[in-house]
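Intended use. Records like the one below are meant for learning the mapping from a protein sequence to its folded structure. Do not use them to infer anything beyond what is encoded.
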Amino acid sequence: MLDVYAFATPNSVKVPIALEELGLDYALHGVNVRKGEQKAPDFLALNPNAKVPVLVDGDLVLTESAAILVYLAEKTGRLLPASGEGRARVFEQLFFHASGLSPAFGQSGFFQRFAAEPQPIAIERFSSEASRTVSILDGVLARHRFVAGEALTIADIAHFGWLWRREFAGVSLEGTPNVRRWYADIEGRPAVQRAIARVNALVPAV
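Structure written out for the chain above:
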């Protein structure tokens, strides 16, 4: 049994989606980041960086959503080609996500919602960058069904996490029809729906 520490966040949802797609049993443990539970000593013992998600597989404690996705794919031999161009394309998208899309979405949302004082230049910078990265993804999806080719991979799961929470960053899919098509396809998968339901259930009722 795998243990996953997570919340209903863009990065957290990626792990249950992968686990559901792979058919692996897991226990999901809520870490309410809205209440600062990620800074509690017992959680910091798992991840000193105070971020979700965290995967525990026996003696292995693994942080960083992309690293967890790669680990799960290699553990099962699925959702990641074993070699060649297909594998390289998956990592190309994972790195694009980690260096481009994810930080742009996160910073855009932060400066729009949480900055102590309005920062117009920061909002413009990161909201424009978030939209630009989605446009790049739209071009990729104009050529392929999925972001790394014609089959679902962990790269799709990585991108889906932030696009699932795109309202936080103020991003629209109106001008990116290929991303909109892809998103609907991913969102409609039974495994994805199960994962979303499980992470949403971690949020306490108001």
